[in-house]
Amino acid sequence: MRAFYKYWELFNEAPEGYYKAPAIGSPLFGYERYCNGSPLKDGKSILVRTIDKPNLMLVEQKELRFKEPKQPTLFEIPKEYAKTINTLARRRMEERLLNDIRCDLMVCELEKWDKKEYIRELQKIIGEIKL
Questions:
Q1: What is the pLDDT of residues 6-29, one digit of tens each?
Q2: Helix or strand holding residue 49 (H, E)
Q3: Which of 7, 44, 70, 89 makes a 20 to 30 Å CA pair with 61?
Q4: Where are the domains of the chain?
């Protein structure tokens, strides 16, 4: 009895005269495409099983061994670099804030609004910080 998948005949082993066609993918998992000639010259393609197991859904049961999770390691910054990194982070924040203020000033200029209103709000927020 012959088995088919769509248009391809299924085989357990490649018949004589057929060779593996690695450039052509297989439409069926567990099978590879073999052919006996060019399809332009009436060559025939077949699918040959590449997995030994008759039922692909069955998987060998193995004893599971759980590894101990590694303790998370914190990336430590050397103390001499900590101040430099903090200064860089502050400068980037200042740059973003300055860009935001410039954008607000352009909108205020286009809409003919008070340009100092946003600056006064920021100064008030900063002034409320108690050290």
A1: 888 888 888 888 888 877 778 888
A2: strand 45-49
A3: 70
A4: 3-49, 79-127
